[in-house]
Amino acid sequence: MAGPVTLSDVAREAGVSLATASRAINGSANRTVREDLRERVLAAASRLRYSPDANAQAMARGRTTSLGLVVHDIADPYFSSIAAGVTTAADTAGLAVTLASTQHDASRETELVQLMHRQRARAIIIAGGRLDDEDANQRLRRALADYRRGGGSVALVGQPILEVDTVVVGNADGAAALARALHGLGYRRFAVLAGPEGHLTARDRLAGFSDALSDLGLVLEPSAVVRSAFTRDGGYEGMRTLLGSGAQVDVVFAVNDVMAVGAMAAARDAGLEVPRDVAVAGFDDIVTLRDVTPPLTTVRVPLVDIGVAATQLALAAPADEPRLVHVEGTVVLRASTPERTPGA
Predict the structure, then answer these.
(1) Where in the chain is the domain with CATH 3.40.50.2300?
(2) What is the rounded CA–CA span in Å between residue 49 and residue 175?
(3) Quick one: which of 170, 125, 30, 103 has its CA closest to 315?
(4) Chain region(s) in the chain for CATH 1.10.260.40
(5) How is residue 297 annotated by DSSP?
């Protein structure tokens, strides 16, 4: 047969109508085909080596076999680890993952959800902390509601404020546990690289850390809290600002690991040695830390497992109310925060 094989060729070979051939091969959200006709069509397609059109299948079924994943920054190992969990779970479900990055531009989340809606994605997962911006959050809620009304399903990794199934990380509790652990090692003069003002994950981690210090009888001075971008370069610039202020600090808590890595680089560039001159701790336990010297104290979060859990939520049968899966962090003490000698 000259040229590509078409669905019309298959229908003619099987002796059925084009509509029947389409329903047999592509499926249908509304009508089914008798089993004997379906087998006849599939046999004809096999003989002719016909390859179904993915777009036609999506139109017939109402959904594609793709799962959309929206992250803030794919270069950040935090998100790539979550993506690894999502792709593992999606593969088990027979789905392919379409990955999109906002590059830390919150307005793009809504645009990407709308794009995946138009592409008829089977489900959408959004990974990343929310911002204290109710207008942006409301726009995203509306886009997700439109998508769900069209038959799609959604899961979020972050704060449970979008009225969808969510994997919630224990940010405040993890940071509080880290503060107590560092205090137990003998640290008394603390500073925090706190991320952006309106970033809710950063805010939760700062609050948990500060509240725990307060419970221990210590005050985290406002001058010891430095705002910066929630990135490696943000940590670098935040540490430069802190060191330039002349603050007397024993240990610096960066509210995520990539910021902590940037902070350690800034300390080295300033002629300081970590941890001899200043100790550093982070949060997340990203895979990159395997190559960081000295090894970084942090709060371990099971990022791959979070990706799997988010995918399972997104693909589960609908529920009347949003489901929440809570994940707690575990403090991991490493060489970047050695036990401090009293009076040192």
Answers:
(1) 66-169+303-329, 171-300
(2) 58
(3) 125
(4) 7-61
(5) B
What is the per-residue pLDDT for 28?
60
Q: What pLDDT, on the 0 to 100 scale, is given for residue 31?
A: 67
Per-residue pLDDT, 1: 46
pLDDT of residue 298: 98
pTM greater than 0.90: no
Q: Tell me which residue has tokens 């540490």.
A: 239
The C-alpha atoms of residue 272 and residue 254 are separated, in whole angstroms, by 17
**Cβ atoms 70, 76 nearer than 8 A:** no
CATH of domain 171-300: 3.40.50.2300
Helices (H), the chain: 7-14, 18-26, 35-48, 54-61, 77-92, 107-118, 134-149, 171-184, 200-215, 232-244, 257-269, 303-315
Tokens 């959408």 — which residue? 124
Whether domain 66-169+303-329 has CATH 3.30.310.50 = no
Average pLDDT of adjacent 10-residue blocks, the chain of 344 residues:
75 87 71 83 86 55 78 92 97 94 90 91 94 93 92 94 96 98 97 96 98 96 94 97 93 98 97 97 94 96 97 93 96 96 61
Q: Which two tokens stand for residue 315?
A: 């693909």
Q: Find all residues with CB under 8 Å of 119, minimum gap 6, and list them.
A: 64, 66, 68, 98
Cβ pair 284, 230 in contact under 8 A: no
Q: Just give the CATH number of 7-61.
A: 1.10.260.40
